[in-house]
Design a protein that fits this description.
320 residues; alpha/beta; five-stranded parallel beta sheet; 15 strands; 38% helix; elongated
Length: 320
Amino acid sequence: MIFYVYMDPNVLSTENLQHKYAMQTFIGTVRGFLQNCFIAEFEDYRIQESIKIQVNRLPDSFDRKIIKALLKTLMKRNHFIYCLIPDHSGIKNDFTCALEQAAGTFLDLLLVEEIDDELEIPAGVEIASLATYQNTDFEIRRSKLASDGLIIKNGNLEEEDFWDQCLKKALRFSTRIEICDRLFGKMFADNYKYNVKIMLRWLERILIDPDNCSLLFHCEKPDGFTDQYMAAELTALKKGRISNMPIAVQFYQHPGLANCLPHARFILTDQIVLKIDPGMDFLDPKTGKNRDACIECKSSKEVNTLLKSYSHAMLPLVSI
């Protein structure tokens, strides 16, 4: 669902964008990145700093204002991920470092000013310029997933393979993960216990910085003392690298409402929002494989507004 892209700041050079339609092509490309891509960055922010320099050199025009607004939105939505290590000796340039680290950092695409046909590109990684980007397999896959979402047939993937293939790139750099699934609380039983166990074990493995990530469940309060049972089970599952990760459950209950949360299930992070069906019942405990699943990117603003509309049904937060 989510792709990782390295964007060479030289793509934004005045020389590269002076060609006919080049600036409009760049605008369209970045609008696509905003849908379902994260931009690879070095740990010292050098890509963003270089991009700012290049943008300020562009002619003062309406197109430049659009580009600045798009890049600002990428930053605001935390779409820059700090996964690259520079060569502090200065022997290798940034592009060479990105190319060498592409496979290890799961990059899907390197967008460059000009393609060197003699470069050795790692398997699974594509390289493109603005002139060739629309013809890449990457853009075909990216746009299809952005518009159609992802559908996984029942039994196609083993439990952690499902999480890896569908959600790994979406969640590994998160500092906040919220799961909205009304039935996770209301109907909590062995199937949900199994699914949350697999999820927490998986998060322990893939999160870049679990100590700086929080996990919050939004769900309907179950009958009786099941809420206390849920809290005890979640506490027991905090192990290893996620031992210090803040986990909480936000229960909802309202006597006058048939449903105190949306029927749709979502995963919300500080970077992106995904609509997930069937929510926290992804995996079948009997087979250890996925159930039928559908995953789509959604508007963070709209989903957060929807969730806030149920705030009158919120009960006191339960911290784990």
